[in-house]
């Protein structure tokens, strides 16, 4: 990594803003009218020209897609999202409709979908709430209320219980400290000891202490806490979580710790597991690629290759087919 590149990332990280590594970048000579015309023609074509729809929408950012939708509506006198819904089906439709939402709207919809209806889809709830930054969660709460006229906190509380609910609510309350340029070694030591004293050291687990430390400290501080933790505990943080708590609470703490340590590696592993599992878990693959393509999918791709020895693009090619494969590859971009 070039020094200048590293410094660039450093300055990005200090303001509480995470560095961005998108695969979907703004198209250069962008003309929303031309794109809208291409999409209109593609939809009207007998049998629908999916390839054109994929080419246009995966190579434009969300804000550009919004402009295309405005142009489309002026031209065709109908709503582009409704038209796309009518023209497409299956997995391709799911991805394309996901792309017509902002990352925050998409996350809010996924959370809402995991809560409403019979039974809760805890896996989705955990993945989103435990992997999003504080800034992202602040936005998600706002958008959730605009979209569904409901408070995210109330919905989460109404749908979960016990310590699992307490942890998710602590995250949704977004009390996490911003990263600081100053490293507080005393605080790091205190937190590491407190995590050990509340868990491995005693019989039972003082979950409340774990929740407050993991929901209120900055990610950069927690990375150092988990390092220091190893000097007190015979087990690292992830092993301690597995020993101390069970079920959804365990899953949530594990996702949190993995994301503090290396968020993009966490997503790379999720993608690999989802694509290689029986009855490939398309929902997970779609969610990660759609929600991260303008955030950090480029870095997820590099972690993927480093960890699994083949590119994410190769795995997608082996485990998916047809238009679904094309749209995913379009969003991942060319292999590095």
UniProtKB/TrEMBL annotation:
The keyword Transmembrane helix does not apply. It comes from the Eukaryota. It is found in: Secreted, Extracellular space, Extracellular matrix, Basement membrane. One of its GO terms (cellular component) is cytoplasm. Its main location: secreted. One of its GO terms (molecular function) is cytoskeletal protein binding. The keyword Magnesium does not apply. Keywords: Annexin, Basement membrane, Calcium, Calcium/phospholipid-binding, Extracellular matrix, Phosphoprotein, Repeat, Secreted. Belongs to the annexin family. A pair of annexin repeats may form one binding site for calcium and phospholipid. This is Annexin. It comes from Acanthochromis polyacanthus.
């Amino acid at each position: 990594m070039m020094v200048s590149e590293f410094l660039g990332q450093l300055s990005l990280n200090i303001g509480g803003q995470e560095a961005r590594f998108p695969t979907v970048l703004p198209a250069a000579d962008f003309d929303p009218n031309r794109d809208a015309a291409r999409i209109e023609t593609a939809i009207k074509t007998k049998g629908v020209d999916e390839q054109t729809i994929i080419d246009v929408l995966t190579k434009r950012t969300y804000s550009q897609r919004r402009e295309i939708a405005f142009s489309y509506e002026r031209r065709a006198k109908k709503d582009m999202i409704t038209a796309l819904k009518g023209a497409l089906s299956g997995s391709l439709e799911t991805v394309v409709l996901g792309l017509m939402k902002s990352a925050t709207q998409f996350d809010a919809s996924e959370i809402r979908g995991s809560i409403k209806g019979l039974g809760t889809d805890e896996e989705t709830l955990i993945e989103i709430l435990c992997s999003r930054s504080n800034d992202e969660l602040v936005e998600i709460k706002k958008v959730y209320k605009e979209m569904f006229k409901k408070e995210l906190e109330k919905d989460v509380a109404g749908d979960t219980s016990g310590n699992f609910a307490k942890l998710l609510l602590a995250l949704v309350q977004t009390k996490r400290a911003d990263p600081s340029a100053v490293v507080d070694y005393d605080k790091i030591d205190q937190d590491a000891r407190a995590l050990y004293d509340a868990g491995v050291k005693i019989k039972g687990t003082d979950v409340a202490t774990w929740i407050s430390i993991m929901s209120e400290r900055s990610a950069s501080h927690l990375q150092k806490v988990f390092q220091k933790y190893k000097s007190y505990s015979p087990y690292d943080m992830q092993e301690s979580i597995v020993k101390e708590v069970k079920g959804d609470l365990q899953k949530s703490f594990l996702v949190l710790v993995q994301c503090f340590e290396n968020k993009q590696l966490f997503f790379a592993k999720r993608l690999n597991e989802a694509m290689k599992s029986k009855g490939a878990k398309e929902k997970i693959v779609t969610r990660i690629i759609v929600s991260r393509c303008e955030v950090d999918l480029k870095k997820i791709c590099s972690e993927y290759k480093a960890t699994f020895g083949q590119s994410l693009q190769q795995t997608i090619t082996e485990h998916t087919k047809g238009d679904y494969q094309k749209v995913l590859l379009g969003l991942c971009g060319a292999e590095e």
